[in-house]
Protein 1
Amino acid sequence: MPALPPATSAPAPAHALPSYLNAEQLGPWGIYLTQIDRVTPYLGTLGKWVETLKRPKRALIVDVPIHLDDGTVAHFEGYRVQHNISRGPGKGGVRFHQDVTLSEVMALAAWMSIKNAAVGVPYGGAKGGIRVDPRQLSEGELQRLTRRYTSEIGLIIGPTKDIPAPDVNTNEKIMAWMMDTYSVNQGITATGVVTGKPITLGGSLGRREATGRGVFTVGVAAAQRINLPVPGARVAVQGFGNVGGIAARLFAEAGARIVAVQDHGGSLCNDQGLDVPALLQHVAHTGSVAGFAGGDAMTAAEFWAAPCDILIPAALEGQITEANARHIQARLVIEGANGPTTPAADDILHDRGVLVVPDVIANAGGVTVSYFEWVQDFSSFFWSEEEINQRLVRIMQDAFSAVWEVAQQHQVSLRTAAYIVACTRILQARDLRGLYP
Ligand code: GLU
């Protein structure tokens, strides 16, 4: 395999930690490799296949040229990585963000492999992305970008090959364009090529809220295990989009107080609890929590040290680091984002007795309802929202309980336990299928 790109382009700062724990140096892919190293001793004879998990099955880099509204042509770099397809087709979102890199998408694809196996949906792991700040594009430019990117990755996606979905800065509208572009290119109507679509195009009821609902469901299950009552609990949320915003709403409805929030625009606090419906409306109108009248502005450092019982990082990876992990007041961290905690921070939180529910369980609600959507599209038979939410809650609770048992049995963190469950399933599939030729 050719040399992989460096995990991050940023120069490595001088650091006291061993290099394998230095997230700044390793980036998301390095964090993922560290997580695999930590689970390897628990894989028994399946460990002979572990190398499979340390490299993506395939990675496609595409040039995405589009006409801008002023008539000039701009080129963007896009990716689709299929990390593992041993258990089923590739599955995972597409992210539009100015910081997207190949190594980041590799890590996100790998985390999808682990997540899908941890909750038992019959998929491998994949992820895509375009390095672009979508806020700088007009609606027309965004549509042309989405359609050209879909055509370019059309080589490797498909309803039985690899099924994209929303992720950071992508939504139902973008999924509709992706579905249409793939369908037009194939001369068919292929609803099952993407999930997270509008309802009228074969989307599923409950999909939009599913990730946040899953975060809430496992959060409640985890809180019970540590005797933390949710009514009255103080919750801090980083990221107030589709994941953090919905999770905050559900926690508030269950009687918790949302005392601190942070997003790309700033940080806010209110010890009495923020008015979540009003804040959601403010974010829908202004694009950020900043400037909301019902809370006081605070610094990013103050956000991480905010007095709270539950912390939900629901933004981007690498947010809980060695620098802020010692200041976190929460007893419970529920990872709504993918990869928000570095391995060094994981260790600090573990040593301090903070329970971390890892991303690969905590935010699996989205892909779980994506799976329901894909099944509904194939059968052309659609379920009620009640049925979807019931099935979602059952899968999330069962997955959490199974991981909790493994953590108790081996005396390891929930993250390592989730990796034991997931890697065992993936590598059993690898082992049963064997190598061809
Ligand atoms: N982007 C979401 C995730 O990271 C959902 C992926 C999907 O539904 O395929 O889990």
Protein 2
Amino acid sequence: MTRTAAASTARPDDEQQRFASLDPRTGEVVGHHPVRTEAEVVEAVRRARSAAAFWAELGFDGRRARLDAWRRLLVRRLAEFQSLVCAETGKSADDARIELGLVVDHLRWAAKQAAKVLGRRKVASGLLMHNHAATLEYRPLGVVGVIGPWNYPAFTPMGSIAYALAAGNAVVFKPSEHTPGVGEFLAGTFAEVVPEFPVLQVVTGFGETGAALCRAGVDKLAFTGSTPTGKRVMAACAESLTPVLVECGGKDPLIVAEDADVRAAAEAAVWGGMFNSGQTCAGVERVYVAEAVADEFIALVTEKARALRPGGEPDADFGPITMPRQVEVIGAHVADALERGGRAVVGGLESVRPPYVEPVVLVDVPEDAAAVTEETFGPTLVVNRVADADEAVRRANALRYGLGAAVFSRHRGEELAGRLRCGMVAVNSVLAFASVPALPFGGVGDSGFGRIHGEDGLREFTYAHAVTRKRFGTLLDPMTYDRGPRTVRHVLRLIRVLYGR
Ligand code: NDP
């Protein structure tokens, strides 16, 4: 069921199609938003062009002052922001608070670091070009389109928006149809501190509005969402050679080695798998536990997961499943795992009670079951026993997904982390990398490519601009027809001496 069918309402007075965002806990309408047409999206990108010139001219210091002011405004209005996130996603108050804390931290980091990471700097010109000075800077692309998902409606798109803005770009943001109000809130608060030009605009609507943004002539498109939609976005952007950043789903493994702190690993597995109702791209979905500690680990996970309760009240452990059709996917994965010989040690099929899903922990699930190979995106964990941590690494690396991972080991944590094919690994914790603004975030394989966050995340929204300046002439200059007859021979001799040994 899409919201087009469920909740759109037409406004005959101004011909503007509108749709409603709903509270998944109650089905109540949170707000109405325009369905932006292709023409409106093109117009937004056109407006963004002049805004981009204004924003780029502010320079690093000017932009930092505005971004810092925006951050302070977001902090002042945190309670309002949080209740909007809760209303549109259904997530618990604490899950929303954690999300918004991270938004603010990243915004601060990107604004502060942009000048150092992107500003013009000298680089070594090398022995052969010693008579030239060489400099490099990273310039804004212009207008960046951002398409975001609903599960972290502020944190996830802000991984692109904050970094693209800090790098000097204007942004046109298409939020998920489930969380348009959060997008409007971001753009509205930004406009309070940057009233001169529409540097950050929001275009609300459904998938077609996102598709229109891909074709609207933006200078880069940053997409976060599912892998199938990521492929469609790439195909649309390919038509105009628009570069893309694609942050897609994951099926993140957690490895519990023989020498792990088993209690800490169990706590982390349950939180990493269940918080935000398991609707986390880099959340824990599968656990590989070494046989030596498996019984103890499974007993602890069982105890902790059984104590958790989903609900609509603010202090619930986690909220409902935000997107109604995801409930069917979760149910199908649990049913398939049980039919194929897996066992539920917590919950089972009866745990799926839309819009809520209670914790489910499955053990001994065949490795080719959907619950192991596909993104479940619910408060479920698959825990499979392995002979040792080395087998765990092999299984962890067996999927096409490669977003994040976690390793619990007292002595081999970093060694095991180094063998995992994925973008980020947390050792003796889960998801810590997402909270370190200096670290890049992104995946490999079906989890996408490109990076948000960190220095890479700033550079992602720029192009490199390189300049050489000749400081003085030299006798050995091969790059002119005025060179002497022996110049090239001398240069080659030099190369042999310098680099041939
Ligand atoms: P979707 O892929 O369904 O949608 C993502 C965004 O794309 C939405 O704004 C959606 O609009 C839009 N969209 C849909 N169709 C098109 C199209 N043809 N062209 C352009 N845009 C389109 O993902 P979800 O919103 O369901 O988000 C959940 C997914 O996001 C999960 O797979 C999760 O793992 C992933 N994710 C990845 C993260 C990462 O950093 N790697 C972080 C967070 C989530 P509409 O909503 O209106 O359909």
